[in-house]
Amino acid sequence: MSDQQRFEEVRDRLRNAYRKHRWIGLLESMHADFLYSDQDVCIELAELLESEQSKRKSVSRQLATTKAKLKHAYDVMKWCDRCSLILCQGKVPAMERRLEINSLYNDRYEIWQREDKSLCIAPWPFSTDSFEVGVEVFKLQQLSFENDRELGDALDACKPEYRKWAFRQSD
């Protein structure tokens, strides 16, 4: 992807996020900052990231939220995103070996699968002792596509699979 394409993608993603809800825009803005602020990016993207800093302050005031609350929400979102990627990509290790999800509030979180195939996360961050989650997966054999239409056609032709995981607190 060219620098110009990257800039346009980030700009459009931010625009669409703020259109959905200002809170979603704030989280997307935080994510763009996380992904690109330490990178060598084109001038347009660097300027966009800089303007987003002041926009986050303004929108946070409008929503009567604080920088700390926004950071908390973003950190939780990042943690959940990492956990969902581990699940959907089938990366939970076998034989009760543990995999770090990532850290949240200075705690290291790990996920593993028990002999009974249920999953556990430690430390346990949930208010309930057990629950199930599921997702539809469209498994494609082709790794790349010429354009969005070709990808869409492949997804339309694909039969969805349903994956489900049971989580249970450690004994």
Automatic annotation (TrEMBL):
<dbReference type="InterPro" id="IPR024992">
    <property type="entry name" value="DUF3891"/>
</dbReference>
<dbReference type="Pfam" id="PF13030">
    <property type="entry name" value="DUF3891"/>
</dbReference>
<protein>
    <submittedName>
        <fullName>Uncharacterized protein</fullName>
    </submittedName>
</protein>
